[in-house]
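Standup notes
- DV: blocked on the single-chain target, sequence here:
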Amino acid sequence: MDVSAELGKTGGSAPQATGNNLDHLCLQIEPFEEQELQNLHQHGVEAGEFQGRYGAQGMGRSIYLRDIAGNNIELRSSQ
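- DV (later): unblocked, structure below
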């Protein structure tokens, strides 16, 4: 994607020491009960809330969290 084009500018600066090279990584995992992952905060994991989101396979519920390197990770149920 051309980072100087209109759509490219929405992602911020080009990959470098101060820019991201991707928005997030999505991992599709086996079906789970959302309550099973509610204790992430208790283990020091920075995590958002479960929400319905549109993705590569249509609508689904997922949660975003941040890994120790500061990357955004999306956990999405395969349901």
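- Follow-up: The beta strands are 25-29, 46-47, 51-55, 58-66, 72-77.
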